[in-house]
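pasting for the record
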Amino acid sequence: MQVNKMGNQVTRTINIRALNAFALSAILMCFFIDSAQAKSKLLVKEYIIGVEDVSYYPFYDFSAEKLDQKSFTKELLSAFFDHRGYKFQFVSLPVKRFDKWYVEENIDFKFPDNERWRTVEGQKLNVTYSQPVLYLIAGSFVLKKNKNLPRHAIKRLGTMFGFYPTLWIDRVQNNSIELVESHSTFSLVKHLLYGNVDAINIEKNVIDYTLKLMGKEEDTIVLNKHIKHERYAFHFSSILHPEIIQEFNQFLNTNSQQIAEMKHKYGIVESPPIL
């Protein structure tokens, strides 16, 4: 009987030790899992999207006083990054340095972007562009009564501070036109209405939104079709992450209806091909 008692005691001791070892292993496993998860969270990449520090509504408004303003750009890119589970933030940057963002700023992406906006220095960068997000019109917008005004009659052109007036670069270089720059689309529209400039070089959706705020009809300001105008596109771009640009292209293709609804929500009318 004494042997059996000792045997039982030994067995109980072994079982307790085994149980303690198992419990310790479980605790250590949980610790390592928690540590790995915590480390993983710390290592999650936060992508930086460079955007213009101006109000260009309804496309975007990342001006200092309206960083939380909803817009087409913010809703579209947030939908994509949330869909992919990527952490991100918008960083507003000076338009005047737009072509140097990828060199001077620690950004992963730029929106909007277009190869036609690149300078000679910028052409050296290996930038990957998405497929078109929006098709728009670049042209000279005038008062309705001046819709047939010839190009040489445009002496003062209103444009956003830092924007590159590609269709007027020849006149800018030979000093035959004066650029009137402003940080405000509202100011540019007012300049045109009051006759302070002959034309403005901003997008028609932006003009129409501003006219609506002023209680004016959309056809108060129209495109002068006798002056060179071009269809162009907004693209999403990156140097560091061409693979994410491809993911973005797929997102555009598979969510076309959702994106069309966003455009309608913000009153954006795209430009058809120029015939």
